[in-house]
Amino acid sequence: MKNIKIKAKTVDDAVEEALSKLGVKRDNAKIKIIDEGSKGIFGLIGAKDAVVEVEKVFKPIDEGKLFLENLIEKANLEIEVEVVDSETDEEQVQYNLKGQKELGLVIGHRGETLDAIQYLTSIYINKELDDYFRVLVDAEGYRDRRRQTLERLADRLADKAKRKQRKVVLEPMPPHERRIIHIKIKEKNNVKSYSEGQEPYRKVMIEPLDK
Fold it and tell me: How confident is the model at residue 40 (pLDDT cuts 50, 70, 90)?
């Protein structure tokens, strides 16, 4: 339900009821007063209810933050959600999850839980939009640390492939992590990389060029 028409004794009462039923705050709603109503004579004769129409305005950045906060609340985790303004514009948003003791739970094994949270948030936001809106979810810089780890891994295995003159096979990785490996390998002139297999078991292969 994206819009609703409500009758009440006053405009304020009608608006509050409509906002409650839509589950939105006033900032995320478009309010149209159809009839301001009338108290009538002595509040009895000729009294008429106010009528308003309230439409839910979908703001992807705000809605995504609310979705994440509700998700975390249901998991009983003490995690704060913030919007990273420097990485947010009209085409994308980046959220950062902050916490002391439970941050590892939202990251998961090699970021798998964090990836799932990002995927769900992206689906939630984009189902309401016509144009794709990119959604990034990080946790206290985890993604940058993971990228650096993968780049070091690519360097080490590229050296191994060149030194031993044989193909090196990495463990299965999600697409965005394989991409980090491929980009790093492209910087080198003595090895190449490619992917083989089907998701979710697709792997990166690194081979020496002059094998």
Answer: low
Q: Report the SS3 class of residue 81.
A: strand
- 45 has a pLDDT exceeding 80: no
Asked if 120 and 190 sit in the same domain, the reply is no
How far is the C-alpha of 36 from the C-alpha of 10, rounded, in Å? 7
Tokens for 156, please give them.
């080490």
- Asked if pLDDT for residue 177 goes beyond 60, the answer is yes
Specify whether 64 is located in the same domain as 136. yes
Alpha helices in 9-141 (DSSP H): 11-22, 60-74, 103-107, 112-126
Q: According to the model, what pLDDT value does residue 91 have?
A: 92
DSSP code of residue 170: P
Same domain, 136 and 185: no
Domain that holds residue 187: 144-208
pLDDT at 162 over 80: yes
The last residue of a domain, from among 102, 122, 140: 140
Distance between CA atoms of residues 108 and 75, nearest Å: 14
